[in-house]
Amino acid sequence: MAERGPTLLFSVFFCLLCYVFHTVASTKDEYSEELLIIPFRSGQVYSHFEFTTLWDVDFAQGGGGRYKLQHFRLFPRALGQVMTEYRVQEMHLTLTQGMWQQDKWGYPVTSAAPGAELWAWFQQEVDDVDQAWFGLTNALSGLFCASLNFIDSTSTATPHLSFRPQGLAEGLFSTKPSHLRYATLPRENVCTENLTPWKKLLPCSTRTGLAALFHAGQLYNTQYSSLGVHLRPVCRNDSCRDASLELRQVLSTVADPPATLNGKQDWSMKRYFSRSLSGPCPMAVTSRVYVDVTTNQTSSFTLKPEPTELKVWSGTWRHHEPSV
């Protein structure tokens, strides 16, 4: 018996090792980060951060579209457990301070209403959608330190024509308007208490990467600021035979540059964000900074260091891509 101990221990260790390798192989995910900077002709600067996590989830493992998120690596566990508990198929949450001035700034990358705005589609097997909805609002209220728990039947709507899923909506993901809920709290005060839990969902938090530019005082001392969390199922490849879960965390601000010199704007990213950019998040497969130079036709400016690439879309929207 004494001679069989090491063999048995090795067998158990080998089985556990195989299980770990299988888990890693079956939960493929990737993370990317982007920052778009657009200087407006009015003088303000629009900054749009976007952090995207793609997770190859086996949606069919529970049958009928029921899935359980587990073995978290890049995807935030706290959010994944809430989505699993209330069987959310697609969700969009924004917390916005200020009003977007479309007549001066044009269209934003991601639209958001003032205050708090939330809408979600639940999986088709959910029987009591209202119960799942109010459970979701209370869970998100605690997760993001927002007053979403004040959402009740009087502030909730079930739109039939105004909203369509932004993710997959066929096969396992087929849905109907009765499984959609929408609510808004226009008087919700947005502050740093919302930013703190939001940035903790990022794989690198604010230690490295583009999120290192976040300075709470600077971000909320603006004419417009908006936080967003967008979750949806998307096609994994061109054939769309398999699906992935996409999480997009967005942060947008519109603010005045820090200073002018001889009547001209003269600022850097460090002075604008009150933070320096040391490098990309090591967990990110891509980390890019885009600068729209369309306004250079009327307001000349230069970029230092020189951009690594110039891209043109439809001959109208152009941006430079400096290296990070």
How is this structure best described in words?
With 324 residues, the chain is an alpha+beta fold. It is 22% helix and 29% strand. An eleven-stranded mixed sheet has the order 5-6-4-3-7-8-2-1-11-13-12, covered by helices on one side. The protein has a two-stranded antiparallel ribbon with strand order 9-10. α2 runs antiparallel to α4.
Going across the biggest sheet, name each strand in turn.
Answer: 5-6-4-3-7-8-2-1-11-13-12
Shape: globular
Number of strands: 13
Helix/strand class: alpha+beta
> What kind of sheet is the major sheet?
11 strands, mixed
Helix content: 10-25%
First-to-last CA distance: 60 Å
SSE order, one letter for each helix or strand = HEEHEHEHEEHHEEEEHEEE
Topology:
Layout: H1 4-26, E1 29-39, E2 45-55, H2 77-85, E3 88-97, H3 102-105, E4 115-122, H4 129-144, E5 156-157, E6 180-185, H5 192-200, H6 216-219, E7 224-235, E8 243-255, E9 260-261, E10 264-265, H7 269-273, E11 284-292, E12 310-313, E13 317-320
Parallel strand pairs: 1-11
Antiparallel strand pairs: 1-2, 2-8, 3-4, 3-7, 4-6, 5-6, 7-8, 9-10, 11-13, 12-13
Helix pairs in contact: 2-4
